[in-house]
Amino acid sequence: MSETVIDQKSASALAGELRRSFSGEVLVGGQPGYNDARTIWNAMVDKKPTVIAGCVTTDDVV
User: Fold this and answer.
1) 52: part of which helix (H) or strand (E)?
2) Per the structure, how many domains does the chain have?
3) Would you say 11 and 28 are in contact if contact means Cβ atoms under 8 Å apart?
4) What was the pLDDT predicted at 1?
């Protein structure tokens, strides 16, 4: 599996675009809450996604 790296400026632009049509929380690295949001139940998995989107409504998913 390959990994794509996106710079912080592009990540922030992507998050801003997503926020316009998304009712949930949208986080990028460095924002308050990002580290808590990226932590999952299995502590052996340590991923740092470019953007984290916390879905709230069905429209956020569909």
Assistant:
1) strand 51-54
2) 1
3) yes
4) 64
pTM: 0.77
How many Cβ atoms from other residues are within 10 Å of residue 50's Cβ?
16
Q: What phi and psi values does residue 53 have, to the nearest 5 degrees?
A: -115, 120
Cβ burial, residue 11 (10 Å; 0-12/13-18/19+):
middle
The Cα–Cα gap between 29 and 27 comes to: 7
9-61: pLDDT as tens digits: 888 898 999 999 999 999 999 999 999 999 887 788 888 888 999 999 999 99
Specify if 1 maps to a domain. Answer: no
Q: Is residue 17 part of a domain?
A: yes
pLDDT for res 8: 84
